[in-house]
Design goal:
Strand order of the largest sheet: 1-2
Shape: elongated
Structural class: mainly alpha
Number of domains: 1
Largest sheet: 2 strands, antiparallel
Number of helices: 7
Order of helices and strands: HEHHHEHHH
Helix content: 55-70%
Distance between the termini: 37 Å
CATH architecture: Up-down Bundle
Strand content: under 5%
Length: 187
């Protein structure tokens, strides 16, 4: 199987399984207003469009470097590892997960498992997967994609933290923020 096929399996597999699992969640008690989410959604969507090899081809862009087959296989494996990290976080969060910024019934601060390493391990895993995919793609659009996806997920993390501080109480969430880094483990 070619490295390109592995990257396609990584990302298409993530999209399909993530979407299918979106129905497994507790009842939402409160949702962040739509006007507050446009920025992070826009940046993330632009990044994902830029990450697609179809965008670079449509613009006639060439690779800036070549990683070779072994490097491409390694990067496809690291992309899969980033996606697995995001899945570990989602499974660990369980029915408290939501694709939107919400407060679920029985919501609480989860600070174990991957949430003991970073406060937003799903975003960390997806950023890592984007970085490794872009490194293999090696196009200017892929490099821009990393910046847009990272900015979009950072904005979402910041927005989510403000929401959770208000909803769960500033004391509970502030203690978690002091103990655990936001996106980069061990910092």
């Amino acid at each position: 199987m070619s490295p390109s096929a592995l990257f396609a399996i990584d990302w298409i597999g993530w999209i399909v399984t993530w979407t299918a699992a979106s129905f497994w969640s507790d009842r939402t008690e409160k949702r962040l207003a739509t006007r507050e989410v446009w920025a992070y959604r826009t940046f993330t969507l632009i990044g994902l469009v830029l990450l697609s090899h179809f965008t670079a081809r449509a613009l006639g862009l060439r690779r800036m470097w070549h990683v070779g087959y072994n490097g491409a296989y390694l990067l496809a494996g690291l992309t899969f590892a980033g996606i697995l990290f995001a899945w570990w976080a989602r499974i660990h969060l369980g029915r408290l997960w939501s694709g939107a910024i919400t407060r679920k019934e029985g919501h609480r601060v989860v600070d174990s498992g991957p949430y003991g390493l970073v406060r937003h391990p799903i975003y960390t895993g997806l950023i890592a997967a984007t970085v490794t995919t872009a490194a293999a793609s090696a196009t200017p659009t892929a490099i821009l994609a990393v910046m847009f996806v990272t900015l979009g997920l950072w904005l979402k993390a910041r927005t989510e933290e403000r929401f959770l501080s208000t909803e769960l109480g500033p004391d509970a969430y502030a203690a978690y923020q002091r103990r655990v880094p936001m996106l980069v483990p061990f910092t």
